[in-house]
């Protein structure tokens, strides 16, 4: 049984890392895969806690740029505005996430049919937005005004419904408000750092009494696999989006959502 849990954790960690930063909803993929694998974790903590691996992956890839921004803070107004923009964008999710945490984890995370439907609907939205012709006003994340960042942060809150996708919500919101595709994805990367770290700390605190040593081992395995696979995605995603746009991810969402509904109908 322990070996089966380790294998499931490896699979789910791989899925988390591959899907966290693309607009397909990593939480939906991990929850659906866990459902069909028969994998359960106390308080549904696994899907949230292994995101730390993805956070560390993006910190590693962007370490040089983050260090430059930190060193420039005392003298560079653009650096200060960028840091403020990320914090302002993070604020709505921090407040709503803390208030609605229990409802999200006990109701929404336990409704696989809802997750599948949201995957399909989100895919349709992404297809429509990807085919729209925009004239971007913002092409550099360092130049995003605070008002734009706050609106993107509000869009991110929609992703508390599993299946929506945090990156998908922020990217679609950013595109509709005048950014180009590459910078929208990059801002989503930076916004992921405080958002996912905050979710990790809150979930760990809320479930501190429910976790055991065996749970910690399984979570570490998933975390490690998420870290390795997320490294690959973060290094290649921006170039892929610049060339192909978001329609491949939209079709993938629709396919996974439809397959999930068929699986639930056949298997329960």
UniProtKB/TrEMBL annotation:
<keyword id="KW-1003">Cell membrane</keyword>
<dbReference type="GO" id="GO:0071555">
    <property type="term" value="P:cell wall organization"/>
</dbReference>
<dbReference type="GO" id="GO:0050380">
    <property type="term" value="F:undecaprenyl-diphosphatase activity"/>
</dbReference>
<feature type="transmembrane region" description="Helical">
    <location>
        <begin position="82"/>
        <end position="101"/>
    </location>
</feature>
<dbReference type="InterPro" id="IPR003824">
    <property type="entry name" value="UppP"/>
</dbReference>
<comment type="similarity">
    <text>Belongs to the UppP family.</text>
</comment>
<keyword id="KW-0378">Hydrolase</keyword>
<dbReference type="Pfam" id="PF02673">
    <property type="entry name" value="BacA"/>
</dbReference>
<keyword id="KW-0046">Antibiotic resistance</keyword>
<keyword id="KW-0133">Cell shape</keyword>
<feature type="transmembrane region" description="Helical">
    <location>
        <begin position="217"/>
        <end position="238"/>
    </location>
</feature>
<keyword id="KW-0812">Transmembrane</keyword>
<keyword id="KW-1133">Transmembrane helix</keyword>
<dbReference type="GO" id="GO:0008360">
    <property type="term" value="P:regulation of cell shape"/>
</dbReference>
<feature type="transmembrane region" description="Helical">
    <location>
        <begin position="184"/>
        <end position="205"/>
    </location>
</feature>
<dbReference type="GO" id="GO:0046677">
    <property type="term" value="P:response to antibiotic"/>
</dbReference>
<keyword id="KW-0472">Membrane</keyword>
<feature type="transmembrane region" description="Helical">
    <location>
        <begin position="107"/>
        <end position="129"/>
    </location>
</feature>
<feature type="transmembrane region" description="Helical">
    <location>
        <begin position="250"/>
        <end position="267"/>
    </location>
</feature>
<feature type="transmembrane region" description="Helical">
    <location>
        <begin position="43"/>
        <end position="62"/>
    </location>
</feature>
<keyword id="KW-0961">Cell wall biogenesis/degradation</keyword>
<dbReference type="GO" id="GO:0009252">
    <property type="term" value="P:peptidoglycan biosynthetic process"/>
</dbReference>
<protein>
    <recommendedName>
        <fullName>Undecaprenyl-diphosphatase</fullName>
        <ecNumber>3.6.1.27</ecNumber>
    </recommendedName>
</protein>
<dbReference type="GO" id="GO:0005886">
    <property type="term" value="C:plasma membrane"/>
</dbReference>
<keyword id="KW-0573">Peptidoglycan synthesis</keyword>
<comment type="function">
    <text>Catalyzes the dephosphorylation of undecaprenyl diphosphate (UPP). Confers resistance to bacitracin.</text>
</comment>
């Amino acid at each position: 049984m322990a070996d089966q849990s380790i294998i499931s954790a490896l699979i789910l960690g791989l899925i988390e890392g591959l899907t966290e930063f693309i607009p397909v909803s990593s939480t939906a993929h991990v929850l659906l895969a866990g459902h069909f694998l028969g994998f359960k974790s106390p308080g549904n903590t696994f899907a949230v806690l292994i995101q730390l691996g993805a956070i560390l992956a993006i910190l590693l890839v962007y370490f040089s740029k983050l260090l430059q921004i930190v060193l420039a803070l005392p003298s560079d107004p653009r650096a200060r505005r960028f840091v403020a923009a990320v914090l302002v964008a993070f604020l709505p999710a921090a407040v709503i996430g803390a208030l609605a945490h229990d409802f999200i984890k006990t109701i929404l995370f336990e409704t696989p049919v809802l997750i599948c439907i949201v995957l399909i609907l989100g895919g349709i939205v992404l297809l429509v937005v990807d085919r729209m012709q925009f004239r971007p006003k913002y092409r550099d994340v360092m130049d995003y005004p605070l008002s734009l960042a706050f609106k993107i942060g509000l869009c991110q809150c929609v992703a508390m419904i599993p299946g929506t996708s945090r990156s998908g919500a922020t990217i679609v919101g950013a595109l509709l408000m005048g950014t180009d595709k590459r910078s929208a994805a990059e801002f989503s990367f930076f916004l992921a750092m405080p958002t996912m770290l905050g979710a990790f700390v809150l979930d760990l605190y809320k479930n501190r009494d429910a976790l055991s040593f065996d749970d910690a081992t399984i979570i570490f395995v998933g975390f490690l696999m998420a870290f390795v696979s997320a490294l690959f995605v973060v290094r290649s995603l921006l170039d892929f989006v610049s060339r192909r746009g978001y329609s491949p991810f939209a079709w993938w969402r629709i396919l996974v959502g439809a397959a999930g509904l068929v699986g639930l109908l056949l298997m329960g």
